[in-house]
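Hey L., structure's done. Input below.
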Amino acid sequence: MFTSDAPPSRPRSLDVRFGDIAPILPALIDVLAARPSFIYERTSTRTRQIEKVYVGFGEIESTPCSTDAFADLRASIANAHSSPRATTAVLAFVSYEALRPTSLQRESQPLVPSYAILQPTLLLELDYRHRTARLSGDYETAIESVRAALLAPAAKNREKINIDPGIDTLKRWAIRPSKSEFLRAAAEVQKAIRARQDLVGVCLSVELESQSDIDSLGSYLVLREINPSTCMFFVEREQFSLWGATSLPILQARGGRIVVETDGATRRVEPGAADQWIPTHKELEEYNLVVAALRDDLDGVVVPTSLAFTTEREQRTYFNLRHLFAEAVGDLAEGVDAVAALKRLTPHGAAAGYHKAAALDLIDQFDVAPRGPYSGIIGIFDRNGDADAACVIRSTWKAGTTIRTRAGAKIVADSDPVAEYEESILKTLPLRRTVEHILRRAPTSVAS
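Output:
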């Protein structure tokens, strides 16, 4: 696949109109005789319209140069910058444990990588704002095939995905910790919060596990339709796949300037409700702690005089939950690039707590299993230094035939632990509905 004698030296623009990526994918898979190794989609938080999509095919084999995910990421970006055959960008996935190597290492999740840096053989970039498409990598033999695939679905009508909201989606999942274990952990966290000056809140989480050999790409395409979010992603490697629709971007870096976000309080939205959300004291406490964590993380990352919060307490709704968001912009400090900024910003405060060091220690104590992908990183890194990365929440991963999803809630002094447990389970609903939909329909995949 994708062979040529003369390696290309620059990306190739395709003069072609294109639509949504979902109906395009089957045509791409058909003409290239391969499934994508990754997909990364970025949506505007304001218009909810897709802005950019990256689709990678194939993978250049590489040997990790260290056990440091960020060092390997830098090496991969450098290779993309220096090699004429390399694509213009790489995708990185970094698990929570790779972000926090000092965390207690309980039993590992078989087949789940600590991190993965994917350098595709062929990269398709679709820019929906400027309506441009381009290929990079070893594309010479693929240009006309990709152009035809982009045009193929133009006249086709997409089948609407209808999911029965009454389906019991919990029955096939094993949940840990149990509700009683979660409540005990939350009580201990609240006890620590009241006793310590360095602790405001901790994000505790619940993991759901099931056994099924579902089609991961088909699951991703269902999820992105029923729960469109700011960052949507799919990664597939041998025996491991990861897909999600996260509302929590970590950073966008472009030309030495970054945009960062954080997500505070969460409230359930009843179907058809048009009520006004006036945050409670407890919800504001959750929001304030993630903003404080973000400010701390940005210290030394951006030029202090350039830091400005452009959005505060902005309400955004995704699926059945409403959130409070904050957004800030700033100029990267001297000697700091997107990779260094990302390393400082993770594990993200919205998935950890505040003060972060104390919160992470309690997560080590009360997490009953490794977090794996949950609260890790997924992102695209351009060879010119630009980046777009998100926190891995609202995601599902499959290792062999084991599928898992995970979600959490912030425990503060005023939290009701029962409500926080129920919120954690609720956050997995679109993921569970996606899996149930795939299992109940005809057992066919997008392509093999």
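The two ends are 15 Å apart (CA to CA). The mean pLDDT is 90.

-- N.
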